[in-house]
Amino acid sequence: MIWALLILLGIPLWFIVGILTAIWWSRRSFKQQPGVFEIAIRAENATKWPRQIGYGRLVRDVLVLNRGVALLRTEMHGVDMVSEFEIGDGPKKPVGAVGRLVALDDGSRREVAVAPNDVALLDAVGAANAE
What predicted TM-score, i.e. pTM, was given to this entire model? Predict the structure, then answer.
């Protein structure tokens, strides 16, 4: 629908296809970088998980989150503590998600859902900060 409106406004179809291809390529190459994992994150005690997942990576004890269509919205959060969290009825993605409660350096706490094979990354940060 929006694409038809853009064409009516005079934007060439090849330009629209080019932009969509660039976004697809950018997302694909970003997700293939080492250390990048799918993450669903919400405020502590929130009732709903976000519909769209983000992608995270850990740089020492900093959680870098990328969100949005082109993964350009970036947030950086220092991680103070990581503890287990019973996820209950978790998000649809990541599949088979494991829950963790993450205390950030700004004093806030977030509930995080990650794939079982990526939870070791978060746990390692929590263990390093506990020492």
Answer: 0.79
